[in-house]
Design goal:
It is built from ten helices and eight strands. By secondary structure, it is of the alpha+beta class. The chain folds into two domains: 67 residues, Arc Repressor Mutant, subunit A; 172 residues, Beta-Lactamase.
Length: 261
């Protein structure tokens, strides 16, 4: 069987990408000597690369040319590219499809410190529905997305986050003991979905599942009034898991790993 020839790598392109990675790691302006040392490249080559990027508007010379730093142009170009990101568009379309299928409010979240942050929200179509906004922060221990994200971490990261959590009581249904929360996570893991029922808002039930997309741990979920969520639990769970399989790009470690195909 004929094997494909390996791709020919362009050294200048590799060095350009590495240059921006060096700035990202340093988080400050760097001199020519520092850049050459970090890139393990001759000063003359680094100088020519910097001058080219200055000409194109991607690098600024600071302190009369004694140090350098990326300009805002790089951010602006990346933002423009991201607006038309086909992966982001595909995920949004899948979340909208889940909302349209269930009629419930659908969301995708990430961890933000000791909270859960809503990145996208597609509001349900039912007259009585759960409402949320992009940017809303929810408690980790009292939200299905929080439980999913917590259990999606590796063991060390999960233990560190557990140690930092303030298990605040929101009502009588809130899990405020670490052992109780750990037992609940084990139950959720066994049933294959993470849920809360009135643990934050007394009339709301939500379900969520962790997903790994391009190296980022996220959680996709849906929420609505407890009676309706309970009566449609099996079908909602199936629809949510179908969505997770469609958008996930990497397997999560341990028992949470699922196929993305």
């Amino acid at each position: 069987m004929k094997q494909e020839a390996p791709a020919k790598l362009v050294k200048s392109a590799i060095r350009t990408v590495a240059l921006f990675s060096v700035f990202a790691e340093a988080g400050r302006p760097l001199s020519l000597g520092e850049l050459a040392a970090r890139l393990e490249a001759p000063k003359s080559s680094c100088y020519e690369l910097l001058q080219t990027l200055i000409h194109l508007g991607y690098i600024m010379a600071i302190d009369e040319g004694r140090s350098y730093y990326p300009s805002r142009r790089l951010h602006e170009v990346s933002e423009q590219i991201n607006r038309f990101n086909p992966i982001k568009e595909r995920i949004q379309n899948e979340l909208k499809a889940l909302r349209n299928l269930t009629g419930e409010t659908v969301f995708i979240c990430r961890l933000q410190g000791n909270k859960v942050a809503y990145l996208e929200v597609f509001e349900g179509t039912h007259a009585i529905r759960y409402t949320a906004r992009v940017g809303d922060l929810k408690p980790i221990h009292a939200s299905a997305a929080g439980k999913a994200l917590l259990d999606g971490l590796d063991e060390d990261a999960r233990d560190r986050l557990f140690a930092e959590l303030a298990l605040t009581r929101h009502n009588d249904n809130t899990l405020t003991e670490q052992k109780t929360l750990e037992a609940n996570l084990a139950e959720c893991r066994q049933q294959g979905i993470y849920t809360t029922s009135g643990e934050n808002l007394p009339d709301v039930m939500d379900m969520a599942y962790p997903v790994k997309i391009r190296g980022r741990l996220l959680a996709i979920g849906l929420a609505g009034p407890i009676p309706r969520m309970e009566s449609h639990f099996a079908s909602y769970r199936g629809a949510l898991m179908d969505t997770v399989k469609k958008v996930q790009t990497e397997d999560l470690p341990g028992p949470l790993a699922i196929s993305a195909t």
